[in-house]
Amino acid sequence: MAVAAVVVVLMLALAMAPGAASGAPRRSPRPEADLVTGLPGQPAVGFRHYAGYVDVGSGGGGKALFYWFFEAEREPEKKPLLLWLNGGPGCSSVAYGAAQELGPFLVRSYGANLTRNAYAWNKAVNLLFLEAPVGVGFSYANRTADLRRLGDRVTAQDSYGFLLSWLDRFPEFKSRDFYIAGESYAGHYVPQLAELIYDGNKGANRDRVINIKGFMIGNAVLNDATDQLGMVEYAWSHAIISDELYSAVRRECDSFKEEADGGRPGKGCSPALRAFLGAYDDIDIYSIYTPTCLLPATGAGTSAAPRRPAARLVAAPRLFSEHVRASSPNTTRSHEFDHKIRLG
Ligand SMILES: *[C@@H]1O[C@H](CO)[C@@H](O)[C@H](O)[C@H]1NC(C)=O
Ligand SMILES: *[C@@H]1O[C@H](CO)[C@@H](O)[C@H](O)[C@H]1NC(C)=O
Ligand SMILES: *[C@@H]1O[C@H](CO)[C@@H](O)[C@H](O)[C@H]1NC(C)=O
């Protein structure tokens, strides 16, 4: 009974949704089978959200990618469509991007309910989360062999196939301004998918053209030299390290050029990198303006000096890791510098 009541209330809400009424542009029929009518602990909201599978892969399929789509909070018919991708490789866009970062419902360690996100991106866009490639999150392959044929190329192709089919299911977004955004290893996924779309648009039927306008990547993994230099330049341009230290790192670490490419880091590289990390002792390297807790960690009563939070850099690029580890093999920090890949 309770479920039936919820459905009726929801249908009424749909009938009264802005845009369905006088004058506003007519909306195409929605894939009602994918409509999410409520989640345990979900706060009441004025926008609709949808989730489900889209088959990808040619001839016989056997592969399906999972999506979760949030209409923009207001006037979704006037807002662009944005696809969000987490990285990893292997990170779930639902578990991380949607539930912990930019989605409207956050999962927090306190309380049993979902928490509204004051900074949800569906305030600005229609927000589509995709779990890719198969094997990640709820996305799956029926054939084990498909899980052995993974990589950036397959990820981009399947994500492109997903988008074309998804737009058939949500045709009102077909000509909508379209953006892709992502973080971390999506520094690979995002531009590679954008390129595939750009190339695919050439000579495609009008019906299959995706109106891509741009992409955005944050904390992106591109390549070691670029990523490491980026971290040091960021710290310098935000007054976290001095001009002197910045120059020392660039000079001593030969601007992080790979040794295979002729990079010749000097003896001063490791100490300079440790000094760089030391500058982050009291600062969250992933969010420099966020206050961090400087109180001693629990159990501090057993140690003489209060423990300060060490710079937590959980996905260190390789060269960076090698230098810091080589020079301080026993410290906590060198342990943290090991290749722990944060599945972001
Ligand atoms: C969680 O949601 C339920 C149902 O809406 C509500 O009764 C309860 O008070 C909420 N709990 C918290 C801690 O907000
Ligand atoms: C995978 O196999 C199941 C069970 O046979 C089937 O229901 C499902 O549709 C298949 N998925 C795809 C994407 O082919
Ligand atoms: C590091 O550990 C090794 C082996 O346990 C030990 O011999 C060495 O003295 C330690 N070095 C420092 C700086 O603590």
Word description of this protein:
With about 350 residues, this protein is α/β, with parallel strands linked by helices. It contains ten helices and nine strands. It has helices at about 1-15, 95-100, 145-150, 150-170, 185-200, 225-235, 245-250, 270-280, 320-325, 330-335; strands spanning about 50-55, 65-70, 80-85, 105, 115, 125-130, 140, 180-185, 210-220. Helix 4 (about 150-170) packs across helix 5 (about 185-200), helix 7 (about 245-250) packs antiparallel against helix 8 and helix 8 (about 270-280) crosses helix 9 (about 320-325). The longest helix is centred in the middle third of the chain and has 18 residues, at about 150-170. The site of one 2-acetamido-2-deoxy-beta-D-glucopyranose has 2 residues, from loops. Belongs to the peptidase S10 family. InterPro entries: AB_hydrolase_fold, Peptidase_S10, Ser_caboxypep_ser_AS. Keywords: Carboxypeptidase, Disulfide bond, Glycoprotein, Hydrolase, Protease, Signal. It is an enzyme of class 3 (hydrolase).
Show the helix and strand layout.
Blueprint: H1 2-15, E1 49-56, E2 63-70, E3 81-85, H2 93-101, E4 105-106, E5 115-116, E6 126-130, E7 140-141, H3 144-148, H4 152-169, E8 178-183, H5 186-201, E9 212-218, H6 224-237, H7 243-252, H8 269-278, H9 318-327, H10 332-337
Parallel strand pairs: 3-6, 3-8, 8-9
Antiparallel strand pairs: 1-2, 2-6, 2-7, 4-5
Helix pairs in contact: 4-5, 6-7, 7-8, 8-9
The structure holds 2-acetamido-2-deoxy-beta-D-glucopyranose (3 copies).
